[in-house]
Fold each of these.
Amino acid sequence: MKKALVVLSGGQDSTTCLFWALENFDEIKAVSFDYGQRNEIELEFAKQICEQHNISHQIVNMDLLSELTNNSLTKHYIEIEEKEGGVPNTFVDGRNMLFLTFAAIVAKNNDIRHVVTGVSQEDFSGYPDCRNVFIKSLNTTLNLAMDYEFELETPLIFLNKEETWKLAYDLGVFDIIKENTVTCYEGKPGAGCGECPACKLRSEGLKKFLERKEKNHE
Amino acid sequence: MKKALVVLSGGQDSTTCLFWALENFDEIKAVSFDYGQRNEIELEFAKQICEQHNISHQIVNMDLLSELTNNSLTKHYIEIEEKEGGVPNTFVDGRNMLFLTFAAIVAKNNDIRHVVTGVSQEDFSGYPDCRNVFIKSLNTTLNLAMDYEFELETPLIFLNKEETWKLAYDLGVFDIIKENTVTCYEGKPGAGCGECPACKLRSEGLKKFLERKEKNHE
């Protein structure tokens, strides 16, 4: 029996991965991290999706993340700025690495080897810990750290947003992903505020996917 | 100016590393992790040592560690057992990896590249995340995760307890290490309870060091 733990934020990417995992594994558990993020509504969506699909879901409190760093994703009074050519100031250094390390600990405690994450190096906005080279290195480090054969599963790693929409469509969950996930920095579900970098990326990908679908049906 | 961040538990090894770092770097900062461990007195000792030597010291709350795992180091009601040929049940899977990842985040936020840890693969009791191969892999992963040139410094990695006592002696801090550090699982400072595996390892190393010193002076 193949078991997987899905790192679930409640956003488009990780929720798509949850359904990908439901197709590819016999038993699924999900873990989310509560780190005082602006968009707490993400966690609500993560919770609801798991309840609706009878998926065991653990929320880990990571308040301490905001003790460590200064940035606009956890400190609500800092304005979100998009810097030219750099990472947006929503970036929390090392965040993915921490989340995946915690997830691996939870996984091993549940006798789960496969840990699924929705990182993509196509749309990585300069985040170094969304690159495939980092994921490979982390996989080795985790295996050495715990003497365990983890497999980090990254179904979206080489997909852009258009392709991620296509994956959701192929999995038969296009509408769920479109309506019941939160990508927006302002915490608005679905199409979101339409203005923040995350909403723009999401809507541009969706537009391209729908255009291509339309064209192919002609 | 060379700066270093020392991961300080208040035990023999990390406190020896603190003094090693004071010799080898121009500016030192220390970080400790409060994870509801049995021996909270360790943290008190870490704090005192830093105050006495004017070292900036940050304590990071890691209560969430006990949410994740079941073990006798954080769950006080579980009896400590020493398993034959395996790791003691004080082991928290992935703990060193988490601590070093958090430490690296703190380091980068303070423009510090060098992170000092007292891990030793000589006395590692089967802990996979005390091995040199793990440290090297983690160093690479951290550098990729944060796009930063971390150097994990492990002055004790190839030292046994006798040699660690010698290092403290050579650094001129033998008495401080002997009296003002806590190794004991029961939280008794200095020579400790004398019964737990950590106390035995510490006292056997001390005995060997003193015997060799005595012999060399003859």
Amino acid sequence: MNVEFINPFLTSLLNVTSTMAMMELTPGKPQLKGHDIAKGDISGLIGMVGQQTKGSMSITFEEGLILEVMNKMLGEKPSNINEEVSDLVGEITNMVTGGAKNLLGEKGYNFDMATPVVVAGKNHTIAHKSKGKKLLVPFTHESGNAYIEICFEDT
Amino acid sequence: MNVEFINPFLTSLLNVTSTMAMMELTPGKPQLKGHDIAKGDISGLIGMVGQQTKGSMSITFEEGLILEVMNKMLGEKPSNINEEVSDLVGEITNMVTGGAKNLLGEKGYNFDMATPVVVAGKNHTIAHKSKGKKLLVPFTHESGNAYIEICFEDT
């Protein structure tokens, strides 16, 4: 996998949060997964399968951030993560992956998306089990952090 | 999705745990997801994509059960969930889905598997975001419970 393949996911998340929630997240430097691990309170995960590749993507949010996204998008701020927040994370996962799929398709890198799964639980960690490189981008915002992680392996 | 499609996953998990860990899990009744939710301490998730379908599968374990599986398979029982346990859950996820894929393929229901992702965190919950039916099977064992959940939707 090319290290640049993380960028369409990064761009796509920034687009989704800025257009839908009017929030500007600050992306950190894309990195090969090493010290940093994706850790948060709610995550959207999705599988991707193409003819020459397969992989997985996760977006992980700290509670403070996703509740603020909910507030900015829907005008209501629940006191904690509930089913509506979970549905929102599922939608964001689909939108971000769909956006990245289009950008990567233009470069001749094609895959189909599975359906998303959302995991909720205080301080959970995510580990992608793939033979390929694992790429991570941290995002910061005054209300909390987020992480995107992807990996693809050749089939 | 046919409700019977959960059975190959159920069979496949029982095969894996009985042959590799010499442990007999007791499956509960397969059910459309309603009251029960998959809740546990470590989960393996995987996406599935076929020409006419896409979906997701999760296996969720309570800590006591997965540590006992680890003990029976590798002769060592860590005091809590660590990276080796996480790798084991990734392997089990691949094996169970691979086994179910073969069984479903014999019935003409074909899909490709993405790569698994493992989530660790006390008492997390899993929500599959799919338009299709969500099917769940609980498993019990004296050392803890497990859940398989799958959903497929037509593309």
Amino acid sequence: MKINLYLLLLGILLGTTVAQSQPPRGPFVISPKVNSDKTVTFSYLAPNAKTVLLGGSQFGQADVPLTKNAEGVWSVTVGPIKPDIYPYSFKVDGVTVMDPANVAFFPNERFKASLVEIPSDEPAIYALKNVPHGSITYEYYPSVEGSTGTVVVYTPAGYTKETAKKYPVYYLISGTTDTEETFWKVGKVNLMLDNMIAAGTAKPMIVVMPYGNPLAKIAEQTGKDKPADVMSRDGDDALRRMKLFETDLVAHVIPYIEKNYRTINNRDNRAIGGFSRGGGQTLRTAFNNVDKFAYVCSYASYISPAEMDKSFTNITSNPDKTNKDFKLLWSGIGTDDFLYKGTVEFEDYLKAKKINFKSYVTDGGHTWMNVKKYLNETLPVLFK
Amino acid sequence: MKINLYLLLLGILLGTTVAQSQPPRGPFVISPKVNSDKTVTFSYLAPNAKTVLLGGSQFGQADVPLTKNAEGVWSVTVGPIKPDIYPYSFKVDGVTVMDPANVAFFPNERFKASLVEIPSDEPAIYALKNVPHGSITYEYYPSVEGSTGTVVVYTPAGYTKETAKKYPVYYLISGTTDTEETFWKVGKVNLMLDNMIAAGTAKPMIVVMPYGNPLAKIAEQTGKDKPADVMSRDGDDALRRMKLFETDLVAHVIPYIEKNYRTINNRDNRAIGGFSRGGGQTLRTAFNNVDKFAYVCSYASYISPAEMDKSFTNITSNPDKTNKDFKLLWSGIGTDDFLYKGTVEFEDYLKAKKINFKSYVTDGGHTWMNVKKYLNETLPVLFK
């Protein structure tokens, strides 16, 4: 009866009859199940599947086969796994799918992955703890070319009840095909700041998380075709996107935030940072707008020496001024990151030009596990 | 080069090598593409798939086959489709998947579906228009049994800049396995209110969207196994969940909201409503807390005559009082809804007991397309 009602509801919610909706679900699947020994049991109901693999997992080897029980539930237990938050997916007969039993997902425009958190014995800095919590707010604002933009804003605990106190602002930009949701739903920047502010290790601040590709919003809202491959990092398309983002941030997002939030409006109280493409947008926007940002954090990104020579002599021609201007120029990278080599070249270039910066090198690759490490290093030193 | 970089980034983001990540993607797929004639073209890249169907679609027949081109991109054009927002998914060799190229998704704990909006010539009441926009805020609050709850709050345009103005509050509860995100990401209650408030047809109000199944949060945070089948509507489990929700709302959510937001704190300025399970929680919570809510909206839900006789004689024994207490008791249902018969019985029961209520019957089933119709009927009459 329960299952029938479930199927019926599911079928009708999905706009199909039960028969049409999907194979009978049978048992109520719990997945993932994090066990006390830090192993994790993943389960997927697919009575008719031939193979089910655990794919896209950053723990253990990828593509671990699941085994099917009499009820048609495939499962596998992996680990123990190092405590962290990991993306994963299933490959069912070769098709990559999110875990239907898991509501935690990775917001991204081009792939679908679920998220599993393995808690550590001593709660991690990004864990949900019993401390005062800030809020996450989604705003619509007037963006480039008449479009309506979306931006996500973290305000620290107590913000809503105060009426006068003003805060510094960290503009934090996510990676290619990530969305304005990724830095809090995957990066947990809100919980990290809740914990750091409660511990007195980070200054109370507002974090503004813009959407990195306003060109797509314009296309969406004007009904124009979406621009081709958003992944390109060079060519006119990439440059137009980069410039459009900078225009959106400086001419639309910042004025909107400073009009609607209690912000301290000067360069010493504005920081900018980002991951991957967002890091490239960070460096270019900061170097083009030295009057606006005193703190600059590049998470796994760089600008090539050639582009630096071509476009940013304003930064390199007078290192003394640049070193005074930037209270922090921070660059973090993982040794397994596919952008490691380019980042090292960038840092060597800055050294040669006598530009001060702080370098942080860790193990691991181009992952959000590493982004949390970069946040853990940089959030405590902003606005100090 | 672009594709290689994309694959590499995707692979590494997902924590697998390129080879492991998934079949080569080839072209950059745009899906869905809403055409000017209101047909929609759905595309999915799967060079190795044997069959790809458009499943879970509420437009046209379900399970429309897609056809594969030379590049391995499957696609189909359907419609013209009646303007609305619809859930859909693909069935790739029998496996139900979200559209990887579409970031718009249906927040739900038990199934994955993407969303497509077909705009109407005269923008719909739920469309994103060029009007002042309210904000959506995610809050953490101290919930039942020491757990930390999550709740989503809509505040109307201008709220953040005012310091004194107070607002009535609509507590709005989503359906079984929906989340606290569903009423804005699928139901678009925020955009509907933005448009109605701008047009002067609805009163400016705060909307509070709680998570409907606090028992799951407790399990999640205590590491206990999640409770079995959350779909059950009867039995001790269902009753415990129902009671726990009511306790959470009345003893935790409302006090938290009234402490942190500028609310008018009396029954005439509190409304409660919900869809499906959330409608059942609405009716039971309202009937158990007549002192708290003057406006009650049931979207596709009911209480059985047997349960009414057993548990809610406080409502039926003195109809004159009840009819004074509730400024609005509203019940909406679709003729194709699997809860239609039970809703009609409930309404007949109320009639027989001389309890005033407003009935709204529409075509269609147990869908969020109908939920938007119910919101369109009820939002304008709240707090008037």
Amino acid sequence: MKFFSDNAAAVHPRVWEAMHAADTPDSGYDGDAWSRALDDAFSDLFGTECTALWVATGTAANCLALAAMVPPHGGVVCHREAHIEMDEGGAPGFYTHGAKLMLAEGEGAKLSPDAIRAVIDPIRDDVHQVQPHAISITQATEYGRVYTPSQVAEIGSLAQGRALGLHMDGARFANAVAHLGCHPAELTAQAGVDVLSFGCVKNGGMNAEALVFFDSELADVVRYRRKRAGHLQSKGRYLAAQVLAMIEGDLWLENARAANAAAQEIASACGSRVFHPVEANEIFMVLSPAEQASLRQQGFDFYDWTAPAGTPGAARLVAAWNSDPAHVAALSRAIAAL
Amino acid sequence: MKFFSDNAAAVHPRVWEAMHAADTPDSGYDGDAWSRALDDAFSDLFGTECTALWVATGTAANCLALAAMVPPHGGVVCHREAHIEMDEGGAPGFYTHGAKLMLAEGEGAKLSPDAIRAVIDPIRDDVHQVQPHAISITQATEYGRVYTPSQVAEIGSLAQGRALGLHMDGARFANAVAHLGCHPAELTAQAGVDVLSFGCVKNGGMNAEALVFFDSELADVVRYRRKRAGHLQSKGRYLAAQVLAMIEGDLWLENARAANAAAQEIASACGSRVFHPVEANEIFMVLSPAEQASLRQQGFDFYDWTAPAGTPGAARLVAAWNSDPAHVAALSRAIAAL
Amino acid sequence: MKFFSDNAAAVHPRVWEAMHAADTPDSGYDGDAWSRALDDAFSDLFGTECTALWVATGTAANCLALAAMVPPHGGVVCHREAHIEMDEGGAPGFYTHGAKLMLAEGEGAKLSPDAIRAVIDPIRDDVHQVQPHAISITQATEYGRVYTPSQVAEIGSLAQGRALGLHMDGARFANAVAHLGCHPAELTAQAGVDVLSFGCVKNGGMNAEALVFFDSELADVVRYRRKRAGHLQSKGRYLAAQVLAMIEGDLWLENARAANAAAQEIASACGSRVFHPVEANEIFMVLSPAEQASLRQQGFDFYDWTAPAGTPGAARLVAAWNSDPAHVAALSRAIAAL
Amino acid sequence: MKFFSDNAAAVHPRVWEAMHAADTPDSGYDGDAWSRALDDAFSDLFGTECTALWVATGTAANCLALAAMVPPHGGVVCHREAHIEMDEGGAPGFYTHGAKLMLAEGEGAKLSPDAIRAVIDPIRDDVHQVQPHAISITQATEYGRVYTPSQVAEIGSLAQGRALGLHMDGARFANAVAHLGCHPAELTAQAGVDVLSFGCVKNGGMNAEALVFFDSELADVVRYRRKRAGHLQSKGRYLAAQVLAMIEGDLWLENARAANAAAQEIASACGSRVFHPVEANEIFMVLSPAEQASLRQQGFDFYDWTAPAGTPGAARLVAAWNSDPAHVAALSRAIAAL
């Protein structure tokens, strides 16, 4: 009963189907019918013209987006615990050719205009200091927290006022939208987001994410950079098919809702153990070493986590699109019984 | 009836099967059972201990290999028409952080010790000139030409003598081995090759190549670089499964033999039109514009090619692992009838 | 009466003399007699074999050193307020090809083994996180604080134990040695420092610093990197001559002592206003806006500084090798009279 | 009697004077009066508004210029024997973050529109091939050949038509202008050049070149990049003073005329031995090994050079701004007597 992460779950049957349907020769790279359908599909989804490119991983999606907005001598404001800072093996430095991540604070890995200003306002406008060129936020955050449309819009407004690009790492964008019940455009195009990494892999996909550009000039550069990064697959139709399957019939929301619901069920059992509000599919809970051992003995797998001050220990549990209801119920019971 | 390229062909059924068999949760990234089986599988295949990593594209495989052998201030000798020089969108410059491709001559895109020496011998050993650190050869070459084991070994010997790394771009390595009928180690480990990009995508895979390291220290660096390049997929087992399927039961050779045989059949029909000996699955033939139009009218698709001096036009045709025998026969007849 | 910085002061007469003495044709780049004398001169100075290269700026010196010790996918631990982090315009990212600066805490911009461990110990040893490869400390620090030989040695010991390189940014190394009265080797070769940026420009030079390698293999790489960075001047003898003049007859110490003494004189006048112990040639003092205005009205120039919590304002004053004793006395009186 | 190169000659007395005149404290970096005077001085010289920055070396000047015009995924057309390709230790790859040098042919290292088109026309406009973004020409060329104003303008016109930037490496720009007797703007601003590396070091300077931007937006980026490259010297006034001295009273032309005249005198003695027309201050001549030995025995120093086909050997001789007339005469006599 694995609650490690959603990023190693199985692939959704409809994604498999779509991949098989693409198993016929077509043009190579992104010249095939599936890849060519992405712009329209995402323009429909977001209700505004946009350009969409498939990419195999979230790291590549994020970093291609950043590199399109930030020159090598510039910087990107992000949260101190953002995935791009903590868990991408230095990929932003590689893709941007050495631009600087400028680390801001914020509860639950959420940025706010104030937190961003606290980073950028002290920067002297001279050549001795790296100047910010973009902001990157994660939706839902690395702690499963969700920005409301107005929270994103406030950051978007700040970005625009300072001539900064705005990137959204949406590895769990679906979970955020499912949680909020809003239109996806409210969190992106309408809120000033320039580029969205639209996650699929954690949500039932195999190995395709979408980079969605609300500023199509950025996409023009990224086409070259994607190839240059070795990310232009020759049989791109198998990636495009995955992405299309995810948005067809709102499978992305269906899957995210399932994961979120499972997380809510577990969170209910956790009660006050939870130390980040559960707004997506991740639960961060206080759990002593003995309790961890007990749960593991009962067959539940999850990651240890850094314990909040004054607590004996902590764990992270993640529900996936296909978390078995029986496992979820069992886990909930086991936690309640601790 | 498409003879454009092998790189957009369908995926082999046994590769699909293997991917489906991997559709069960396991550790993320390359911690799963399939990924962990790669080293042994390739060590068996090559009869020598080696380390193997999956990568989604040949470009990424090639460039990760080069970056492991060449410092940013160094250079790589390759053929003027090597894929890394002509068709990777500058990826070597990206991955190596600006190292230089040093272009050598050679018929059929094949390098020889003499051609390599002609490039490196004039380089002054001072800091004003970029110093070579590696050689990269393509097997089979971009013109479907094949290095014999002794030809590789001669280059390997030169590389060793000059303290240069040796990389083999094996996007069509299977076709070369199938053509030669030799043991794969004769072309690699025994011939001084340090890293091989072992191609699968053109040979029935979907989106997984293998980087095979005969020098495992190089692999240690590449593990970090692969992540840093956004190429460490979280559901890596689907890539590992593809690669394992390709080498299980020698599917790689079976597929390559089929493609080579189809190419031979077409080549026979071409007679003296062929201007590069057909040793793999590619045919380069003289074909006038009128003849091109005629073939296309009959339903055959292929790429125009640069015509050799004194000829009216040329075309490239590529046979794939699954080229339909009926199409191959029809094409052969159509060519013979020109 | 300028107390802005030591980095724009005039050039010492003996440096001028040495430059003029080099105004005769010799081999270009670093093949001249002056450049070739550097290794011996520094080996004598440090009492151990070392290799020394001239570089025009401290930023280039620091970053060439880091790039020699840290691969693009690695990281460097430095203080949050280190010059390489705050004031080099992202040069470390450029030279290292995107390696990460890992920011540690410490009073007065001084690192300690504990502070370094607090940064590196939480780093998971996996490819998702950037791994540290070196430590960089500044001697004297950006706040004019000095590491004792044993403090450096403790860091050197930690570095060695973790297989990390150790770089010392010695833009004001002379001031530190003058303050401590120790042998320069006690702070470097004997304490585990691999490379020292030996500053001259702030100390009476014009535009030459020395990179001193106690590990000569690092120097071999830097020779190539220096050229590749456009820092190999063709008339290098004018730089070498500056550096040689600085160490001949211990001019470097003589100048540093003068600057330190001037700073001490001013500091005495400041009394409890000083908020960083004055150990080199910089004074950080509490100074209200009105007091700042008053001093400026009397003809004294200096930089505003960030005020410590609970104070009305602050200023940074820097004494140079040639600070006019009359100006220093006048400033001291003016401060005392505030 | 050294005829190795102009790049290691002594510094002109008026340059020394200017440097000494700058030996007074002023603002650091490029905030001083000398540095701030550069824009006006060069605007006067070229008769058009331009922006000028000092840089210590020609390599840095060239590569900063290229990096401002070419994205990392782009390319620069230059001659196969251009200094940036042959003798800058890979600096273009460093500064541009891996952009590609696209090598064109041309007699005497001169490019022509046809030669440029031969390189760029075959490039497919797709992401698999690196796209050109700029052209770089050297004036005078690496073989001492000079582009006329109309030759530059033709290249400028091509550049404009293809939306390519145009950079001129003017390490010996003064020699070219002196040879042609034209206005410097005819070779630059009026001919479509966007950035000029205006050489001083080979022409009597110590360690300052000027980057002259006829497109000031490029300069805005380069200011950041110069700092990021460690090329923003804190005592920049000593560099600015050199550059100003060079253009004051047309010292740059005076020096170049002297060097050119010396070269002409030697060339006359060489007669048909010369294999590149002598248009600047370099002489490339056929010289057998025995003749080389003879000249060297008589005290003349120079570099061997690659012999043209069918000749027994060759040498390169370079006259400098201060080549001693007696030495020049002696060399001419010695050559005539061979």
